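## retry 2 of 3
previous attempt timed out at serialization; input unchanged, resubmitting
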Amino acid sequence: MKQKGIDSFVNQRIWVIGASSGIGEACARALLKAGSKVALSSRRVERLNTLAESAQGMALVLPLDITHKDQIDTAYQTILDSWGGLDLLLFVSGVYTPMRADQFDFEIAQKTIDANLLGPMRAVAAVLPQMITEHSGHIAIVGSVAGYSGLPKALAYGPSKAGIINFCETLYYDLLPQGVSVHMISPGFVATEATAQNDFEMPALITAEEAATEILNGMQAGKFDIHFPKRFSGFLKFLRILPYPVYFWIVQRFVKI
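## retry succeeded, writing output
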């Protein structure tokens, strides 16, 4: 049994959380261009308004903070009141602070988990009951290849994204019989405000627009595991299956971080 894809984005009701910059903004622009109705959410309302100005009435601006469940619930209710339902939740929002053990800051780690793992859970909790009732819909969550295994400078970010992988896998098991599709999105390095913090060479770096193309194509095809660019994400997938001594040896010598 294969999960459903998306035949066309025309008139699809889509909620992009994290739409004000980076991958989220690129996805929102691509979806609007494809003819979707797009609800735009993030904390930065000015950027959302700018994006909505070119949407010719096809966008809703719903500013929110993903760490506040009441704001997510209120935004979702606005979508229901405006459109009568939702076809796709695309959760892209997240935070990234490079961190190693000698700089470990629990408060930063807590905020990272709250935004990157509990944030998507709050949004899924809001939209899931109706999708299950209607036996339709798509849930797409952007994680990261940093969730595949432990990597330098990802002491809080990596665990938050590893949690997303587990969450999506379990959602897939439960929702496939219900007719609700789940898309686990694991980008490699993408040129965004977040990765601009990195002080190391980022292999196979791609643009946010290239990432958006990969994501939209993957969802249309009904893929669960959407990872890219393959030359980098495939290498990290391979590292996951190696014995730890070999894995750590490779990371220490070839991951220049």
